[in-house]
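User: structure tokens for Thiamine-phosphate synthase, please.
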Amino acid sequence: MKLRGLYAITDSQLLADGKLLPYVEAALNGGARVLQYRDKSGDEARRLRQAEALRELCNRYGAALIINDDAELAARLGVGLHLGQDDGSLAVARALLGRKAIIGGTCHAQLPLAEQAVREGASYVAFGRFFNSNTKPGAPAATLDLLETARARLQLPIVAIGGIDLHNAAPLIERGASMIAVIHALFAANSAAEVERRARAFSALFEQQA
Ligand SMILES: Cc1ncc(COP(=O)(O)OP(=O)(O)O)c(N)n1
Ligand SMILES: Cc1ncsc1CCOP(=O)(O)O
Ligand SMILES: [Mg+2]
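Assistant: Done. Predicted tokens:
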């Protein structure tokens, strides 16, 4: 599938109390093309149950499901994977998940990390945080200039992440982001209808710059 558009990422605090499935479905209805299941709890049984439910939802909407951090869970479900710099080897994950799996890697604000991710078989590279992030305030800061340089040098999709909202997303797309990954500005909402409205608005930014 083409990796372009809104990349929604779940958060177990924002999506507690029965919100996970309705809010994710709203994001998919609003046009999210990729969904990352990001759950830092050690509750394996719950993680498996939720990831299976998300796989069913994503299949229904023709969206890709990506598991954060956990190559074994991604392999078990036959879905994609996102790995940070301390989450294990991309090359090992590629060997485990096969040629077709979507596998992404965090590259913070460093082009050499992206070049290494490409060599190890990544499907996309992610830079950020680009703005102040509620979810991960300590992530290293990346710039629009870095994004533009990466776009010129790399042949694979680039994901921008970190503090992205409806007011600051457009320049990231203009300067080379294939996808924008969003947690707080998408899911910190009072209703599923509001999540859908936001997802639609994020997705429309890509149509304007097709
Ligand atoms: C699309 C995307 N980009 C970056 C990250 C961050 O990954 P990581 O650095 O491993 O941090 P955690 O998300 O695991 O806290 C991501 N998850 N997704
Ligand atoms: C996981 C991650 N990696 C860098 S910033 C970030 C958090 C993104 O969340 P938000 O969209 O709420 O800033
Ligand atoms: Mg990680």
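User: Anything notable?

Assistant: Residues 115 and 154 are 8 Å apart (CA to CA).
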